[in-house]
Amino acid sequence: MPKVVSDARPLIHLAQINKLSLVKKLFDNVSVVPEVRRETFDEGIRLGHADAQAIGKAIEEGWIKIEDVSPSVTLAAKRLADGERIARSDAKTLLLARESRAEILVDEKALSDLAKMYGLKVWNTWTILLEGVRRRLIGISDIESAISELCEKRHKLRNEEAAEILKAARLIASLR
User: Fold this and answer.
1) Do 9 and 42 fall within a single domain?
2) CA distance 32 to 54
3) How do residues 136-159 score in pLDDT, each as one tens digit?
4) 23/80 same-domain check
5) CB atoms near residue 34 (< 10 Å)
6) 118/12 Cα distance (integer angstroms)
7) Residue 82 CA: distances (Å) to CA of 35, 72, 77, 78, 87
8) What is the sign of the dihedral through the CA atoms of 1, 29, 98 and 81?
9) Do 43 and 11 share a domain, yes or no?
């Protein structure tokens, strides 16, 4: 199983729907930069978000590891962030994935596109869930629930996208 470096949003979304464990089942090694830990856990706890507790438990259990980058990568991340107009934490996440030859887990389109330009295999909340269906870890009803729950939590998902995800999940399930 591969290594993945994750951004904050997919961890938050998967924790909100009680599917964070899929990441553990799909990857040998899950890393985040310290800024992602602050956003997903520290800030989430401060704001009283239940999903932060699940992420904190994963960190405590050691299957989500906090991994900082070297000073030279930090400098490169600053230049990348400024040049591409992305957050520095996003740039650090992308460069850590590249440096450690890992895959990347991101939901933001701009970061996903940039990661693909860097030659990284990109995952997002929905591809994690669909892979869970493919591996028989979850079912179609889990996808339906995820769409409903995440839309309630203001996940940016258009009706057409939700229909495409359900169609893909049904196709995957029919091929197993």
Assistant:
1) yes
2) 15
3) 999 999 999 999 988 877 677 788
4) yes
5) 14
6) 25
7) 17, 16, 8, 6, 8
8) positive
9) yes
Q: Which of 30-34, 93-97, 148-152 has the lowest mean pLDDT?
A: 148-152
CA distance 18 to 173: 21
CA pair distance 19, 31, nearest whole angstrom: 17
Q: Which two tokens stand for residue 47?
A: 């704001």
Tokens representing 60?
């405590």
Sheet containing 64-66: give its strands across: 64-66, 29-32, 3-6, 103-105, 122-123
Q: Are residues 55 and 117 in the same domain?
A: yes
Both tokens of 9, joined, read 């949003």
Beta bridge partners of 6: 105
Q: Tell me, yes or no, whether 81 and 110 share the same domain.
A: yes
User: Measuring CA to CA, how many Å separate 168 from each of 85, 130, 142, 162?
Assistant: 32, 8, 13, 10
State if pTM tops 0.85. Answer: yes
Helices (H) and strands (E) in the chain, counts: 11, 5
Quick: pLDDT tens for 7-19. 999 999 999 999 9
